[in-house]
Design brief:
The chain is of the alpha/beta class. The protein contains 4 helices and 8 strands, in the order αββββαββββαα. Strands 1, 2, 3, 4, 5, 6, 7 and 8 form an 8-stranded mixed sheet that branches.
Length: 250
Amino acid sequence: MAGRSGTVAGWLLALVTSGIIAGCSTVNNTSNVESESNQNLVFYAGLVKGFEHTYPPRHILVLAVADACENHSDGPAPDGAMGQQIGVTLDSRGERIQRLYTTDLAGTVQKALVQAAQEAGMISTASAQTQYAAQDVNADYVLQSRVVKCWVRKQRVIDSDRNASWQTMADFALDATIYKPPFHVPFWQGVSTEIYSDPPDNPGMLAEDEASIYDEPGEVLSVAFTRSVEGLFKRSDLHSLIAEDQALRR
């Protein structure tokens, strides 16, 4: 009888141990994650409210974006990778399992600025020029900008009940300078910064009730990116300055 009890006890121990191992394997399973992923950066027009059609219909020339935040890359792009690195995917131990890339970041940001200016009520056009030259141009204002932050981190997290989920944090910041031709002194300068997390940061919500909205980290970065671009024109100081300004161009 003692031998039978020992056999049952051993079988139960093996069953529990295999369950623990299987559970750990489940919560830490990231084997299906590819080492590189190309992400789309999308401008979600109309995401930010309250600034639409509030500016006078002045002409603004949007210069090409000079800097595309290469300083955040944690290494050179491997052979075959597309574009530039904009983030990483990490496992539950904080180890990198994937690099995230996007293409034509500078062009995407410039197009978004043109569209956001139009949303604001201005007449905007794009330019291939990256730097403002103090000279007469066919515009009331010239917008020169650079991306100073553009990074997204997606990480596997495990709660106290050993439940696994993904958490994504995106950070985007745009440094902008607006000139009033033909003057060389900036008419306005500012930085528009946005940080967005998915699941959204909600202090009143329990961890087990939180759920991700987006499937791809590029979508989370797109929210921060859009809020930064549209938020630039929602700035009260910029709005007041342009609304009260007397245009020189005739």
